[in-house]
Amino acid sequence: MRALQVRELLPGHGGAGLADLPIPAPGPGEVRVRVRAAGVNFPDLLMTSGGYQLKPELPFVSGLEFAGEVDAVGKGVADWNAGDAVVGGNRFGAMAEYAVVPAGALRAKPGGLSWEEAAAYPVAYLTAYVALVRCARIEPGEWLLVHGAAGGVGLATVDLAKALGARVIAAASSAEKREAIARLYAPDAVIAAEPGFRDGVKALTEGKGAAVIFDPVGGDVFDESTRCIAFGGRLLVVGFASGRIPEVSVNMPLIKGFSVVGVRAGEYGRRFPERGAENVAAIDALANEGKIRPHVHAALDLADWREGFAMLERREAVGKVVLRP
C-alpha cells in the first residue's frame, strides 16, 4: 500500500516520503479501514521533525484523522462490518491506503458529508467544541473574536459558533481570506488581523469587548486581545502560530476580571473520557443535522503531500487540506 512514512526526523520534512508498505492486518479489537481521505494538520508537519510533543517510534506513518470504509475487523469486534463508512484517527497512521486502529477510535461517517469533508472535521471541530462549550461555556448572543479564522481550526470555530448562536467577529490576515470567510459562514463581522484590531472589536461590541476570544496565534495578537476582552471574559489559548509564547501581567486579569484558559481537546477527552465521548457525539450530531459544514480548501493525491503541507506552512489554506491515498 502507498503511505507517507517518516523514516528520520529532519527539517523540511526531509525524512518523510512515499513508501510501499505491506497492508497491515487488524489484531484483536482492531479494525482495518480503506482510507479515502486524510486531513492534514499542523501536528503532522511538526512530527516529521520531532517538533511535536507526541514522538512516535520511527518509522511511522503520518496522519491524525481520516475517513474511509471498514475493510476488515479483528477478533472480538462486533460493532463494525466490512463496508461501513467511518471517520476516525489514532494520532498517526492516517496518510496511507489502509489504516489499522482500535475499534473504539471509529465512529459512523455523517451521511451528508463527502469523504473529503468527513476527513476535515474531526480534529478541527472537536477543538472548537471543547474550546467554546467546555472551556468558555459560551452563551447565545455573546460576542466571540476568532483569531486565525481562515485556518482549519479557526474556520471550524466560526462555523460552530454560528451554530451555537454566538455573535462572531472573524479576524484574518488577507482580503482574500476575509472574503472567503464572509462568503462561507457569514459571521457578524470580519476584520483585518493587524495591529489596532482592538479598536474595531470595541466598536462592534459597543465598548464592552469580546466575551470570548479564541487565540491560536499568540504573540502580539494575545497581547492586544487582553485589551479588547470584556469584563468576565474568557481568553482561550489554543496555540502559538506566531512563534512567540506570550506572557500576561496578572494585574490585567485581576482588573478586568477575565480568565486565561488553555485548550487541549485531545487531552480533555483522555482525562474525562465520558465528557470526551459527549463532545464527539455532539459534533457528529451537528454534522448529521447539517448545522455545521467543514470547508475543504484543497483535496490532493497522496503523492502531492508536499504541496499540501506547504499550503499550511504558507498560511494560504482557508479551511482544511486533505490527501487522497
Describe the protein's architecture and organization.
With 325 residues, this protein is of the alpha/beta class. It folds into 2 domains: 2-121 and 294-324, Medium-chain alcohol dehydrogenases, catalytic domain (Quinone Oxidoreductase, Chain A, domain 1), CATH 3.90.180.10; 123-267, 3-Layer(aba) Sandwich (Rossmann fold). 31% of the residues lie in helices and 27% in strands. The chain is built from 11 helices and 16 strands. Strands 3, 5, 6, 7, 8, 15 and 16 form a 7-stranded mixed beta sheet that branches. The longest helix is centred in the last third of the chain and has 16 residues, at 273-288. GO terms for molecular function: quinone reductase (NADPH) activity.
Summarize the structure.
By secondary structure, the protein is of the alpha/beta class. The protein has helices at 42-47, 115-120, 122-135, 152-163, 175-185, 197-204, 219-225, 251-256, 265-271, 273-288, 305-313, and strands spanning 2-6, 16-20, 30-40, 60-61, 65-73, 85-88, 98-102, 106-108, 143-146, 167-172, 189-192, 210-215, 229-237, 259-262, 296-301, 320-324.
Topology-level CATH name of the largest domain: Quinone Oxidoreductase, Chain A, domain 1
What's the total number of strands? 16
CATH architecture call of the largest domain: Alpha-Beta Complex
Order of helices and strands: EEEHEEEEEHHEHEHEHEHEHEHHEHE
CATH superfamily annotation of the largest domain: Medium-chain alcohol dehydrogenases, catalytic domain
Proportion of strand residues: 25-35%
The level-1 CATH class of the largest domain:
Alpha Beta
The largest β sheet comes out as:
7 strands, mixed
Number of helices: 11
Question: How far apart are the termini?
Answer: 9 Å
Shape: globular
Write down the domain tally: 2
Please tell me the overall pLDDT.
Answer: 96
What is the rounded Rg? 20 Å
> Spans of 5+ residues with little confidence (pLDDT < 50)?
none
Helical proportion?
A: 25-40%
